[in-house]
Amino acid sequence: MIDEKGILFVLSGPSGVGKGTVRKSLFDRATDLKYSISMTTRSIREGEKEGTDYFYKTKQEFEDLIKKNRLLEYAEYVGNYYGTPRDYVEETLDHGKDVFLEIEVQGALQVKENFPQGVFIFLFPPSLEELKNRIINRGTESEELVKNRLIAAKTEIEMMDAYDYVVVNDEIETAVQKIQSIVQSEHCKRERVAKQYKKALEADFS
Ligand SMILES: Nc1ncnc2c1ncn2[C@@H]1O[C@H](COP(=O)(O)OP(=O)(O)OP(=O)(O)O)[C@@H](O)[C@H]1O
Ligand SMILES: Nc1nc2c(ncn2[C@@H]2O[C@H](COP(=O)(O)O)[C@@H](O)[C@H]2O)c(=O)[nH]1
């Protein structure tokens, strides 16, 4: 059967590289992508909203979700849990809609095991110095947390080869356009495969 499910796109990259900024700019444009809102145990930041940025959970609530297998993937990242709701992603893909995840690397690797047909994009900083400046200037984390996130960034960058695409986030506009191009070309690839499959089926039955 021709696969009519949606495509799963996964965006990762070190903390402060600009994943959230690029994703929001992508979603501000006309897009058919559906964003999967994650669950987290981290505290809500000023300006964030429950159900828009995250679903905020206690540690106990999060561990219950893990036990009940309600998460497609989850990871402990710099002292907090983060995870992707399984039902939302599976149901949306089954309805033929594309899903976009913005998650860290350990979680992305778990997703890759279950969805090898997914499209994995790594957002890379123009330089490590710029990465550090961005996370410090965002001003949302204490000095210690910034330090821990930068330590995690090193390990994350080492895993970059596991991704299908690397996009450098120098100019936001350029990075967003590149991700839009990736989305379009992945659709074209699948259309081509579907056409080839259809042709082979017709030949079989003629
Ligand atoms: N291309 C860019 N040029 C300059 N500044 C940028 C760019 N992209 C993002 N920023 C800024 O860098 C900071 C970090 O961006 P953002 O919060 O989107 O990163 P993130 O990768 O989502 O981080 P985290 O993983 O910690 O949530 C923000 O202050 C944002 O405004
Ligand atoms: N494995 C997962 N990682 C996630 C998920 N949602 C967000 N994240 C990533 O966590 C870090 C920290 O996020 P922050 O909002 O505290 O700055 C960042 O890399 C996010 O992309 C998820 O569901 N699973």
TrEMBL record:
ATP binds at residues 13-20. Gene3D superfamilies: Guanylate Kinase phosphate binding domain (3.30.63.10), P-loop containing nucleotide triphosphate hydrolases (3.40.50.300). Its EC number is 2.7.4.8. Keywords: ATP-binding, Cytoplasm, Kinase, Nucleotide-binding, Transferase. SMART domains: GuKc (SM00072). GO terms for cellular component: cytosol. Pfam families: Guanylate_kin. PROSITE patterns: GUANYLATE_KINASE_1, GUANYLATE_KINASE_2. GO terms for molecular function: ATP binding; GMP kinase activity. The keyword Kinase applies. It catalyses: GMP + ATP = GDP + ADP. It is found in: Cytoplasm. The keyword ATP-binding applies. InterPro entries: GK/Ca_channel_bsu (IPR008145), Guanylate_kin-like_dom (IPR008144), Guanylate_kinase (IPR017665), Guanylate_kinase_CS (IPR020590), P-loop_NTPase (IPR027417). Belongs to the guanylate kinase family. Essential for recycling GMP and indirectly, cGMP. This is Guanylate kinase. It comes from Terrihalobacillus insolitus. The gene is gmk.
